[in-house]
Structure formats: C-alpha cells, structure tokens
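cron nightly-structures :: item 1 of 1
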Amino acid sequence: MIVTADEFAGIRRQAEAEYPHECCGVILAKAGPREDRILFPCRNIQNEKHAEDPVQFPRDARTAYYADPRDVVRFVRLESEGYAVVTFYHSHIDAGAYFSETDKRQAAPRGEPLYPDATYLILSVVDCKVVDARAFRWDPTERDFLPLPFGEP
C-alpha cells in the first residue's frame, strides 16, 4: 500500500492549500498486529532559504521544497521509536507528476537512495487542484527510480 484513502485526502488538501508553493511530507508506519501509520506533513521553507541565500538556493517554493529541519528531526525521532518512512511526497506546481532529476538527487545524493524501500509520491497541482499523482520506487537492478502502478485510493 502506498497511501490509504484518508492519507491521500490529507495530502491532497495540503497540496491544494499550499498552492502555489510545493508541499512536502512523509508517511511513517510501525508494523504490528495492526499497522500504525502517521501522515506527517512538513513545512516547506524553500522561500526562506531562497531569501537568505539566493545563490545557494536559486529556486523559490514554487519550483522546489526544503523540509523544515525541525520536521525532519521529529520524523527521525519517530524512526527511533520503531516507525519506518514508507512514503515521501511532494507536489509539482503547474507541472506534471514526474520524478525529476532534482528529485533523484535529493532521494539518492550519492547515487544510492537514502531510503531504498520508500515510495515517492509526486502530485501535479494546477490552478489549486491536484490533477495527477504518480508513485516511484528505487529499483536496484535498474539503479533508478521507476514508476509504480498508482491509482487514487
């Protein structure tokens, strides 16, 4: 399972509410008799990074995301409590739901994925509405992130 219907509804709401800026977040899960899942929206601070240093961060939040480090610390803490990141998600603004070269560099900064078992969900948001969503996962044989079958739950 990539996302539940409730998770997708929450991600959709976040993506549409944050338009015209990219949204981002993660879904974590803890195995057990009944899988415990957490939808964890992150704050995109790309505009702040761009304002602080436009040379190092030439893109604004319309074309990029930078998850607030405080949010990253919180979800890493959940990992230490037995949760695993199962899905990363973010939106593309007025563009397609594809896994860009930038997405690949962020997911696999040294050519190896930081989270090889995670799924990456990309949403296309056009005029404040999610119009498409696609999922991708690392394939160790192809050494690339390949599309997965994904239908809105």
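cron nightly-structures :: done
The longest strand covers residues 129-139.
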